[in-house]
Amino acid sequence: MEPNNNNQIPLLISLFSLIFFNYAQAVCVPRNSSTHLLQRSPPPNSPPKPSPSPDSAPTLSMDPSIKKICETTDNPDLCVSSIAPFLSGKTDPISVLEMAINAATQHAKNAMAMASKLSAVPKATTDSANAPLFEDCKEMYSDALDNLQSAMDAIPSRDIGTINSMLSAALTDFVTCEDGFSGETSPLSPYDDKGTKMASNCLAIASLIK
C-alpha cells in the first residue's frame, strides 16, 4: 500500500511555519537591550576615582591689611605667624594689637611651663645648678603675664600710655630672665628671644593706634 503524500504535505507546512516563526521571533529581540545594561555598569576593572590631594585643599591666607600692619614691626614674619591662631575677622590696628597680646600671653604661659619643668629637675643633673635661675624666670614670666593683661585692659579706654608702659615691662621681663644666665645659652633662651620680639611687635602695633 503506497503512503498518502497528500496527508503529509499539511504536516510539513505546519512544521516549517513553526520553525520560521521561532526564528523570526529570535531575530526580532532587541540586541541592544543587554548592551545598554552593560554600558550603564562600570567596567569591573576600572580604577577608583582618585581622592583630592591634601595639598589641593584651600588654605586660609592672611588678610593683606593685617600683613601691612605686621610689616611695621621689626619681626613681620613672626608677627603674622604668631597672631594667625588668634584671628578674629577684624583688621584694624586695635584688633590686631589684641591678637598680638593674646599670642604673647600664650607664649609667656608656655615659657613659664618650661621654667617650672626645668626648676624641678633632680639635684644630680647638670641643670640643677641653674634651678634658682629657672625659678627666677618663672617669676619673670608671671610678671610678664600680669603686664600683658594690664595692657589688654587698657585697650578699651585707649590709654596708650598704660599700654606702652605695660608692654615695655613685659619685654623687660623676658630680657631679665635671659640676663640671669650671664650671656650663656639656656633652655629658656629661645623662649626669651621670641618673647622679647613678640613684645616688641606689640609695641610697634600699638604705635599705630590714633
UniProtKB/TrEMBL annotation:
<feature type="signal peptide">
    <location>
        <begin position="1"/>
        <end position="26"/>
    </location>
</feature>
<dbReference type="GO" id="GO:0004857">
    <property type="term" value="F:enzyme inhibitor activity"/>
</dbReference>
<keyword id="KW-0732">Signal</keyword>
<dbReference type="Pfam" id="PF04043">
    <property type="entry name" value="PMEI"/>
</dbReference>
<dbReference type="InterPro" id="IPR051955">
    <property type="entry name" value="PME_Inhibitor"/>
</dbReference>
<feature type="compositionally biased region" description="Pro residues">
    <location>
        <begin position="41"/>
        <end position="55"/>
    </location>
</feature>
<comment type="similarity">
    <text>Belongs to the PMEI family.</text>
</comment>
<feature type="region of interest" description="Disordered">
    <location>
        <begin position="35"/>
        <end position="63"/>
    </location>
</feature>
<feature type="domain" description="Pectinesterase inhibitor">
    <location>
        <begin position="61"/>
        <end position="205"/>
    </location>
</feature>
<dbReference type="InterPro" id="IPR035513">
    <property type="entry name" value="Invertase/methylesterase_inhib"/>
</dbReference>
<dbReference type="InterPro" id="IPR006501">
    <property type="entry name" value="Pectinesterase_inhib_dom"/>
</dbReference>
<protein>
    <recommendedName>
        <fullName>Pectinesterase inhibitor domain-containing protein</fullName>
    </recommendedName>
</protein>
